[in-house]
Amino acid sequence: MFYDEVEYLLGTAALLDRLGPSRAFLLEYAHPAGILFGFMHWVLEPVTGFWPTALRLTNTVLAAVLILAIARLVALTVTPYPWTAVATLAFVPMMWVLTGLALAEMVGMLCGVLGLWGFVRVAEGAANRKSRWVAPALSGMAVGIAFYVRPPLFVVAFAPVAYLAGTRRLWRESAVLFVAAAMTVAPVIVLWGGLVPPKVYCFAASAYSPANTALALGYAGVTMLLLCPAWFDGARVWLSGAITAAIVANLFVPVLELTALPAWRTACYLVRWTPYTRA
């Protein structure tokens, strides 16, 4: 298995065995990714037995649920063919990696989509009067749970701003979603004194990175091109200029470099799997 799979799963499970889901566990947790992924597999250990194939199949099941949730979300909008739209996910290379490996992002994406689903139901008039306030509250809680997988996913809580851009119709529901999300994450943020556990700072501390920003925007652009090519139709001249400028800039400030990876370095990312047993 890969290093990240073993470290996040076995390291978190061992810490939970020693401290339990407690305040001490939150303070001793030493990984930048959130606590939920390891905690989920710790709970599922009687089912999976920490068998590598079972651990990875968990993400496969989550991917199926994610696809269903996205299809239901898309069906709430004007898109007449939700399943056709969802099928484009098969062309995103990152989805294959996340579906086949025991990595944290899949459960985080699922929570993020569920967070949007409840709010969009209200925005599109699909929610009844009783659930008009319950749906945004549950959406906010789902977004808050996503924070415990990957803290940057909390940005989903700001998605309702897009609905508020041209109307004031949903500001109360948006406030409910944001407050519910904030209440879900606030206790841990206060305990940590930030968005990540205090022990994470033992590994590295760095300022804002323009290179990482450029890479992140590049990944986002490629993903959007695969999912929705029509999104780029209205700005062909601007897009062509931006790509040309990025290529020229990369010559002077190399952000993207293509080099062969030595075999010894590849081996460093692989570790021997040791079956997990409770102490």
Key phrases:
mainly alpha
Summarize the structure.
The protein is an all-alpha fold and 279 residues long. It has helices at residues 3-19, 23-28, 36-43, 45-48, 52-75, 82-87, 93-100, 105-123, 131-147, 160-164, 171-192, 210-227, 236-252, 263-268.
Q: Radius of gyration in whole Å, from Cα?
A: 21 Å
Domains (count): 2
In which range does the helix fraction lie?
55-70%
Poorly predicted parts: none
The description of the largest β-sheet is: none
SSE run: HHHHHHHHHHHHHH
Percent of residues in β-strands: under 5%
Structural class: mainly alpha
Q: Give the averaged pLDDT, no decimals.
A: 79
How many strands appear in the DSSP assignment? 0
Number of helices: 14
- Give the CA-CA distance, first to last residue: 22 Å
Shape: globular
What's the topology here?
Blueprint: H1 3-19, H2 23-28, H3 36-43, H4 45-48, H5 52-75, H6 82-87, H7 93-100, H8 105-123, H9 131-147, H10 160-164, H11 171-192, H12 210-227, H13 236-252, H14 263-268
Description:
- The model has no long low-confidence stretch (mean pLDDT 79).
- This protein folds into two domains: 3-205, no CATH class; 208-279.
- The radius of gyration is 21 Å and the shape is globular.
- Helix 1 (3-19) packs across helix 3 (36-43), helix 5 (52-75) runs parallel beside helix 8 and helix 8 (105-123) packs antiparallel against helix 9 (131-147).
- With 279 residues, the protein is mainly α.
- The longest helix is centred in the first third of the chain and has 24 residues, at 52-75.
- The protein contains 14 helices and no strands.
